[in-house]
Amino acid sequence: MSAQPTTKRLSTRIKMVFAMVLGSVSVAAIANSATQVIEARQQNFETIEQNMKPLNSTLNTDLIDWSQFSALAITSHQAAIELQSAFPKGSDAGSRAKSSIWSKPAKFNTLMSQMEQGYADMLEAAERQDMALAKRGLKQVSGTCKGCHRQYRSVW
Ligand code: HEC
């Protein structure tokens, strides 16, 4: 007779502890995945930035090394593709992403796809060894950086 209430109390307590553990695990998991998303996208931006100068100098020679140009364009294009889905809602805290990315997404998305398209043009140019198209693609990519940073990246 007296065992029942004890069991009941116990099971309630177990449920509470279980809920607390679950709660803290999921909060930690969310924080962890947001940090990973931010680190991954910053790494992709770093790749893009590091490739800009070599891409430029590869095109500014008389005899273009197309395999080098292509290798640089491939890694940049991959980074640009990943960046297109690297800004989930709520991933601004602890990063330089401004909230305008989510409140005014139209221009942000346009600039993102212009950057990706510029790299896609460079890949096609490498295949055809088409210098004019390669330069156009690179120019299109360069044109997106400042415009986006001015509006969507905080200065600190
Ligand atoms: C569509 C918008 C957009 C475009 C286009 C864009 N950026 Fe950015 N960039 C951002 C945002 C937003 C951040 C901040 C990301 C963060 O802190 O999570 C950033 C961050 C960076 C960073 C810093 C990464 C770090 O570790 O903090 C570099 C470097 C960078 N961008 C370079 C470039 C270059 C070079 C280009 C052009 C070839 C470019 N970006 C194009 C929006 C853009």
TrEMBL record:
SUPFAM superfamilies reported for this sequence: Cytochromes
The question of whether rRNA-binding is a record keyword is answered with no
User: Membrane-spanning regions, if any?
Assistant: none
MF terms in GO: electron transfer activity; heme binding; iron ion binding
Name any one Pfam family assigned in the record. Answer: Cytochrom_C_2
> Which stretch is the leader sequence?
1-31
Going by the entry's taxonomy, the superkingdom of the source organism is recorded as Bacteria
Signal among the record's keywords? yes
> What keywords appear on the UniProt entry?
Signal
Q: Which GO terms describe its biological process?
A: electron transport chain
Question: What is the protein's given name?
Answer: Cytochrome C
- Lineage from the top down? Bacteria, Pseudomonadati, Pseudomonadota, Gammaproteobacteria, Vibrionales
